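ESCALATION

Customer reports they have been waiting on this structure for their group meeting. Please prioritize. Original submission:
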Amino acid sequence: VMDECVDRFGDLPQAAHNLIQVALLKALCQAVDILKITEEGQRVVYHFRDAANLKPSLIAALSQAYGMNFTVNVGTKPFLRQTVSKSSRKMEELIGFAELINYDILKKHS
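Update from on-call: job pushed to the front of the queue and completed.
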């Protein structure tokens, strides 16, 4: 979408770029039943509808990619909590994390 917008309108203003990134993150989350994302200081919490998608293979993939920078709760209110940097690239970190979750969950369903 961004490439098409740039081709048609030229360089996008930062606000438009941010809006597209938020839309991408929301779409990634909806695809795997993440209900909401909240922020707790330097941590971002992905709240899942249920724990069905929090399989050992996903936890192993996240552990390999992020080391100790995330935690998992598979209780009655399941979530993944990711520690993110204070950098201006926070949105890219969130999208990368959500893409890995999607890849692991959706490859199991195909």
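Sent to customer with the following note: Helices lie at 2-9, 14-31, 56-66, 90-109.
Escalation resolved.
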